[in-house]
# Entry
Amino acid sequence: MSEIFYFITATQNMCELAGRRVFENEKIPNSEKIFSLFEPFTELINRGKMPFPIEFGHRVLVIQDGGGFIVHAEVMGIGVTDEKVIVDTMKKLQDRFNNRIRITSFDKGFWTPNNLKELSEVIPLVCLPKKGKRSKVDQEREGSKEFGKARKWHPGIESAINALGSGNGLIVCRDKGEEGYERYVALAVLGRNLQTLGTILQKKELKRIRRQSKAA
# Structure
């Protein structure tokens, strides 16, 4: 009965919103909109990237280490964006890895002047490109050899994110509810890390076989 009651009240709410928009020409704030009756916590995400500038779903923060393993994955709350969480997340990771994180690379979505300042206090080299027009200081920082080297590592996380979707099932979540979504993300990350571990072990085995073949 509770599920039926939910769908009745949710449908009534949708009709009310539609009436306000169509008959009263009211612009409905995103915070009041319901994008899915079946997954009411679904968020409208304005990525601004073609071919799909607008998407419906949930933002997930993914952090990968130098070995290709995903060491942090977090389903972020509605309205929470990358630049709002990265400092606290990286501080926790630095503590977790006993201050052994020496270099980090981020895309422009994480940029704020304060983020650069605070991240630089806990990580020796922070590769964080500035949004918008760059000052002379920014150009010198981003033009350094160290910055360029760290930036070359960045495609690795882009590849991991694509793999989580195409190879580990995150393009479409088959589970239900917020807990189901978080569970699905966790399983996808586990699957990705197992694949990464398998690749490393395969390479080691191939090297061992080659060494034995040369010795023979």
